[in-house]
Amino acid sequence: MIEVTKEASGLWLVTLNRPGKANALTEDMLQHLAEVFEGAGEARAIILTGQGKVFSAGADLEAARRGLATSPLWERLSAAVAAAPGLTIAALNGTLAGGATGMALACDLRLAVPEAKFFYPVMKLGFLPQPSDPKRMAALIGPARTKLILMGGQKLTADEALQFGLIDRIVAPGDVIKAARELAADALAAQPDIAAGIKTMCL
Prior knowledge:
globular; alpha/beta; 6-stranded mixed β-sheet; 4-stranded mixed β-sheet
């Protein structure tokens, strides 16, 4: 359900492939994703995307009822994404919801298709968000807008997400991977230590 393609250029394409379930994440999928990013020291750029019309609906409903919604795996995954030395790009092929938001927030850049929507109904479901999610979101869009999403339960359109700064660019549905590849091109061509150094300087 997690596909990883490693290209000779140093580009890794990581795809959530459970479109029949809106790419909802199971414990095994979270574990696999965390291991991929923890082992991504040699990747010069990573594109994270989904198969189908939804990037991810967050935690698988049945797994969430069994405790996955509060699993430390979410925090482990987002920490691994943030620690990857290469350029990380979330190529959001559709709606991003719930706990899956954390791994997109941890990426360096976020692209989305026009139809994408963004929501994180954690309070309504009776859970706290993972500790790093509000901090990363607030760093991008500010505390008030973060509360608008996490406490006000607001669902953002792609246009609103772009205006807020939650995403960096809106691209046509068929072009999200192409656009991500274009953004990764300079990082792939650069010396890895220079690219990683610039990324560190931006923290």
